């Protein structure tokens, strides 16, 4: 879906009537600060879409979490070329929410209170957008890292989304619940093991509401799941669709523009470092060829844009929003 189509669709929905495009923009006068308050609305065909921020993760210095074992001066030069001027990377936490008829589908839950004051803002921002936790019907968990499942339980260990069912790929579940999950192919095996206790505790608490599926399944008649292993064994890419309209959600395939510029440099956050590189290169190549609208969990807010091919690596073209119009 191109930008013109998306803007036409969202603007028409804002007015609640079918008007010529020139009349739509002439009549659209209501302005909101909602993009500054932590959420952004848009439509995808018949789907009502909401992106909500959970905050961000600041990694300083960038190495060795990013570009482990790469010459530091080379990393700094590429960072400078890509307008990253400090020796750190800042990863957004963007969460997609889909309203489909009587369902409210949340894709991941953010970090809760587990990553400090820079993160854990999803719940407040979701409520600011007009959605109460008990209205959420479904939670799709892409994988079991802290910034994706930390918001499932509150401080007392109770489920935040009390009426929701949970969905997770069997591939992902089997890895984390195994007697001895294998992190030997990570560049920092110990970092993965720290996540095991949280994953198991959360899975235990939501077990009665948990539905496992095989990747390749279509969920809710609007989300196609496909395996994109490397970051974790059951990590997916998602295709959200409604009629002719599509949005590719690459989840954690890329955590920062540095890994767009040099996808072969990788990150310690990947459970299988080499497979993560191969998956990243494959998916970025496909997205650059398709020229399709993309969402990312960790690229700069709100994580909507396009992947472009460069002589070396790839670039990120954010989808432009000229003004924070209220799309409802």
From TrEMBL:
Domain (Metallo-beta-lactamase): residue spans on this chain: 92-298
Any Pfam family the entry gives: Lactamase_B
Xref: InterPro entries: MBL_superfamily_lactonases, Metallo-B-lactamas, RibonucZ/Hydroxyglut_hydro
The UniProt record lists the keyword Phosphoprotein: no
Record keywords, A-Z: Hydrolase, Metal-binding, Zinc
Keyword Signal attributed: no
Source species, domain of life: Bacteria
Family: Belongs to the metallo-beta-lactamase superfamily.
Protein name per Swiss-Prot or TrEMBL: MBL fold metallo-hydrolase
Source taxonomy: Bacteria, Pseudomonadati, Bacteroidota, Sphingobacteriia, Sphingobacteriales
